[in-house]
Design brief:
single chain, alpha+beta, Porin, 2 domains, 18-stranded antiparallel sheet, two-stranded parallel sheet, 10 helices, 24 strands
């Protein structure tokens, strides 16, 4: 059975984990039972959320930190890759990049709704609405998440009250040089899964720098065998040498489904030199179906986004992260730190995070150095032996990174009892499997 104690969601110790001759488990199986020894997730209580607009994306460097910035800048040249540059801890957001990538799933219920849309245009429109929901959660000021350590993992999940389902998120740092993060998301009951990998690049241009997320995410609707290929904007920081440092999103992105021939083109626009506050965080775009223009998009990615339907001439709000929408965010659940492995993000970076939260930059720098030095030592000991990721493998034909434990069975929502996760492995319990287990129990007793 599934029980709730405070904010915990967990399986009872004997749940399907007892002896084959345990008649209590055999006589009254609970079809809502997750699985034996499933990971216990607890609801995350605190969450930082920056406000909309330009002010929350600015950072004024204090005098005590100006020296650190100038010492860093002396090492840089225009066009230089910043991936190997050690950044001062005062500009770090106290969480890993693997954690930050999970921002897109606080509104995963929009994907549950998209899977039910009858028309191809309706589905891509709903997918776009979900995509936009991943950007408005941002830290206060200009902050960069930790660069994940090789082999680092992060896992979390979101319960869907309306469908009584769960979206699981698993990520792993599969390469350090170049830095590549792989991720897998699954909600088999609601019929969707997402996989992909991101190669993080960064360039220094003098008074500005860009962080480029090179990679694709592939969203699969299981009930239709439809795949949507999604790309990401880049982050641009300006005002490094003079002025106030400001972080923006820029670039052209796309969401495309080859099967339905529906696609979306979006542009995240940087603030023009003489632009006012209304020109901050602007986006524009178009939705096509079989090369026919269906709608145009205008707005601000952290505020209201409008869609203008070409057929009807009507304009409506496609997305608006107002107070009502934010109150309906799915509650993220995480693994308690004492239940995490030593290479899980929160536990791995706990001392750096603690120092940052205490505003102790010296201790944060020291703790960060300990982790980086350990990584360098491990790489030296490994030598030419290639690193083998624990949860992902690279396809020899496509070179794409794939989650090792993804469920490849034909999708049948009537047969899907529940999903659960243990040690990074997402598994599905089927009703037919439960019946099979019960027959084994009866056979063991009879024998």
């Amino acid at each position: 059975m599934r029980i709730r104690m405070d904010s915990k969601w967990e399986a009872t110790p004997n749940e399907m984990g007892g002896s084959l001759t345990d008649e209590r488990n055999m006589e009254q199986p609970d079809e809502r039972s997750p699985a034996p020894q499933a990971t216990v997730y607890v609801e995350q209580i605190t969450e930082e959320m920056g406000k909309a607009g330009e002010a929350s994306q600015m950072e004024t460097v204090s005098r005590e930190n100006e020296g650190l910035i100038w010492a860093l800048l002396k090492q840089l040249r225009p066009g230089m890759d910043l991936s190997k540059v050690v950044l001062p801890t005062f500009i770090l957001e106290p969480r890993s990049f693997l954690d930050k990538l999970s921002n897109f799933y606080y509104h995963a219920d929009l994907l549950s709704q998209a899977a039910l849309e009858e028309s191809a245009y309706g589905r891509i429109k709903q997918v776009l609405r979900w995509y936009l929901s991943g950007f408005y959660k941002k830290p206060r000021g200009l902050k960069k998440p930790y660069n994940p350590i090789l082999g680092e993992t992060f896992r979390c999940c979101w319960r869907h009250p309306q469908t009584d389902s769960c979206t699981f998120y698993i990520a792993e740092q599969i390469s350090h040089s170049p830095p590549i993060s792989a991720f897998y998301i699954s909600n088999r009951k609601d019929g969707f899964a997402i996989s992909g990998s991101i190669l993080s690049k960064s360039k220094f241009y003098g008074n500005s720098a860009s962080a480029i997320l090179d990679g694709k995410a592939k969203l699969l609707f299981l009930n239709r065998n439809e795949e949507y290929v999604i790309t990401m904007p880049y982050a641009h920081c300006r005002g490094i040498l003079c002025g106030t440092m400001t972080l923006e999103l820029g670039g052209k992105v796309s969401i495309e489904c080859v099967k339905t021939r529906c696609f979306t083109k979006l542009e995240f626009k940087l603030k023009p030199l003489l632009g006012g506050s209304s020109s901050v965080n602007q986006i524009s775009g178009k939705i096509f179906e079989e090369n026919k223009l269906m709608a145009t998009i205008q707005g601000h990615w952290d505020r209201e986004v409008f869609i203008h339907e070409r057929h009807s001439g009507q304009q409506e709000t496609l997305w608006n992260p107002n107070a009502d929408i934010r109150s309906r965010r799915l509650k993220r659940r995480v693994v308690q730190m004492d239940q995490q492995g030593e290479f899980e993000s929160e536990r791995l970076w706990q001392h750096v995070t603690s120092a940052i939260m205490d505003r102790d930059q010296l201790r944060a720098t020291q703790e960060k150095f300990v982790l980086e030095e350990a990584q360098r030592k491990e790489a030296k000991e490994r030598g030419d032996t290639p690193w083998t990721p624990r949860l992902f493998h690279q396809d020899s034909v496509t070179s794409e990174w794939t989650y090792k434990h993804r469920d490849s069975w034909p999708w049948d929502p009537e047969n899907c009892l529940c999903q659960f996760e243990k040690d990074g492995v997402i598994q599905t319990q089927e009703r037919s499997q439960r019946k099979h287990n019960k027959l084994l129990c009866e056979f063991a007793v009879a024998d």
